Amino acid sequence: MKSIVILAGGGPAPGINTVIGTITKVFISNGYQVIGLHGGYSGLFSKNPNYEILDFKRADSIFNRGGSYLTMSRFKPTQEDFEKNFNAAFFKENDIKLLVTVGGDDTASTANRIAKFLEANHYPIQNIHVPKTIDNDLPLPHEQPTFGFNSAKQEGTRIATTVYEDARTSATWYVICAMGRSAGHLALGIGEACHYPMIVIPEMFNKTSVSVEKIVNLAISTIIKRNILGIPYGGIMISEGVFHILEDDDLKNCGVTFSYDEHGHPELGKVSKAQVFSTILENKLKELKLKVKIRPVEIGYDVRCVNPCSYDISYCSQLAWGVWTLFDKKETGCMVHIDESGCAAPLYLKDLQDPDTGKINPRLVNIAGGKVKSIYKNCLHYITAKDYEAASKYVSNPADFDFCKILNWDMNE
Fold it and tell me: Fold for domain 152-304+383-407?
């Protein structure tokens, strides 16, 4: 029986099961067997792949659930894997006509390599990628979100709202770190929805270099400003991405003890970024003799496997139906996209890749866009030149905590 195979790579995002379930339903109704491959890409390069046949009952039981029914993996095949380990027999024995990959930028980049490999070796197998990530950093047209982002943002907003209420109730400052390795979409979205007085994302440092000191001073800027306003509490939302663009020496000298990998780089994946930053901030506040209660909260793994919101269920269903549409049109080596009119369109992976690295570059927050400017101009609290006199009650050098001076921004631009 002619078949298709589905795999999921990278980390979880709400809506994966909607894609898997809906693709299964639509392809079964069109006469295809649907194979679910466990272990991400590793199954394609294994002599004994772990897979199962998906039926309508299974699809119908998972389509609105969080997590991924198909176990995921961050496996990245090497060139040697392509040359020696690609399991062509699996495709031939199951008469597979289509490989569907579900994932983020890394999974998309590998999908691009597989598309080229299939074409070069004349395998009659189409390859369509479904873009997912809670980080919202895949380069979809017209700022179209990646699936999973809105569900993660909704759950993150629920958590951050509760945290903010605790801050108000107990006169505490919370340092919240949200996932987003390359871009600050999730931190910005949650921070905006909760009216946090300071949101720090990597894209903010577009006119100056990033440093631990600047991040700390931004946090202190909002604390002082709120003290001036008589508000002794708040939340500082930070994207984990800022830690990944810091220099190693800056982290080594920040007063926090890290473990290091074999290349001498701090192993940030093993620590709570919120805990790291709250410790650094506490040390600086003590140095300034400012008495502030600081508590850390991490938002990340707890938003990846929540049940998808109605937006993502509808969106993922459209993407899955779009896979059938593109398959029926003989499209391959592409990412499915739903345009403004709701029609499925192909985004060819070869057109999205960086010509030097071969990878698909992440979509960053448009820091110069009107929406983002409005957030930073109207939602946040921070020290400006007009606050220097009042701020001098708390620090001897208010200009060091001037938001625009720290970032080299002009809010009138």
Answer: Rossmann fold (3.40.50)
Residue-level pLDDT at 262: 62
- Average pLDDT taken over every residue of the chain: 91
**Angle at which helices 185-193 and 149-170 cross, to 10°:** 50
Fold of 3-148+308-352: Rossmann fold (3.40.50)
d(CA 2, CA 10): 28
> Closest by alpha carbon to 361, among 105, 75, 9, 103?
105
The Cα-based distances of 290 to 55, 220, 223, 230 in angstroms read: 62, 10, 10, 15
In the chain, where are the structural domains located? 3-148+308-352, 152-304+383-407
Cα–Cα distance for residue pair 292/16, rounded to 1 Å: 42
Do the domains at 3-148+308-352 and 152-304+383-407 have one common CATH topology? yes
Q: Which residues are catalytic?
A: 135
pLDDT, residue 244, reads 82
Quote the pLDDT of residue 198: 98
Which tens digits make up the pLDDT trace of 14-38? 999 999 999 999 999 999 999 999 9
Strands 51-54 and 33-37 come out as antiparallel
